[in-house]
Fold this sequence. Notes:
By secondary structure, the protein is of the alpha+beta class. 56% of the residues lie in helices and 20% in strands. The radius of gyration is 30 Å and the shape is globular.
Amino acid sequence: MSSNINWKTFLVSVLGTAIGVALTFSLNGLRAGRQKEYTQRLTAIMVIHDIDMTINELKALRDEEKKFYDYSQFALEHLEDMASVPYDTLTYILQRLTKSDVVFRFDTSKEMMFNSSLDSWHNLGDVKFMDNVQSFYFSRQALQSLFDSSPVWTEPLEEDINYKLFADVGRVSHEEYIKRISSYLSDKLKEKEVRVFVELSDQRIVALNRYIDSWSKMNDENKFLMGITDTEMDDYISSMKENGKPVKAKDLTGTWEYFLEGDNSAEYEFRKDREFVLTDHSSQIWHAQYWSGKFKSKLTISGTWSLQGDSLYMYQDPASVVVELDVSELVAVKGKEDSLATWARNYEEEVRQYQSKELETKGKLAFGARLDPSRDKMKWTRSGKVFYVKRKAL
């Protein structure tokens, strides 16, 4: 009898162990399946958001192109009477016609992550979705190549061609400078290469709209194929924005630094009385007829600030603008030292007047602001662009 009991006990023990092992494997398999599904959806959401962001970039480019088209058509209609064209219209057209060192680039970081991860290929089981994503990235690469090298998209004027025009800032009155820009632009708009670039503006708008429509339809299909809801997309976007902590007034008080290339930097001093002072430092190499070298400029703007939710608002006072020029490193040819000093004073006044006029309509700045755990770094977001500022060491 005892022998049978022992065997029964043994069998129950073995059976219990087997069930336990089976349950363990089952639970582990369930967890792995859930993890795979989570990774799959997260990867899909990341790619879909990348496509959405690219579409938004194209919409911004299209809107700028529409603005250029309207402005340039207005200028062409007044080609023999350019004095009637507003100053901001003239400068905008000239800026759009001139090549720049700052070249537009799509952000390819998500594309690189997607293509370099084997998990992307293993986890995303929908073949049609994978095909859509690859087609999008190939299409975006092709569009980037067009932006970089196609005559349709390449600005016709070199920066150095406009150098003499810009070199006169501070040497002539604002009215005389406007006359020179008007005359210069009138001549340029009659040149064949420039005229062709202007006339192709409507074709660039059509091309951008085609890409926008095509990619938008593709991404709607992507969301359907992967079962991605608008709520999931909103949650993903919110998770990207909400890194860090909300900024409070006591955290903001002090001086914050933002560094650019070379000697260029900006300081934001936020005071307890809700006032702030922005100090912008920059340097530039200058070669003119009578002097050359490097000069430094200091731009100071003051105003008031406020915090509303996650947003930081700065209200810049147009009357507060101060411009200071350091020309100690500019070398004048013999006999032109006084001319250099006069040029510096005129330059300061011209820049001050221009900046003050700009602030009359563009003086309000709004940033999304988040603070890191150390409370010594802030992330500012404005118009889709991200800036990082650091608290200045005492």
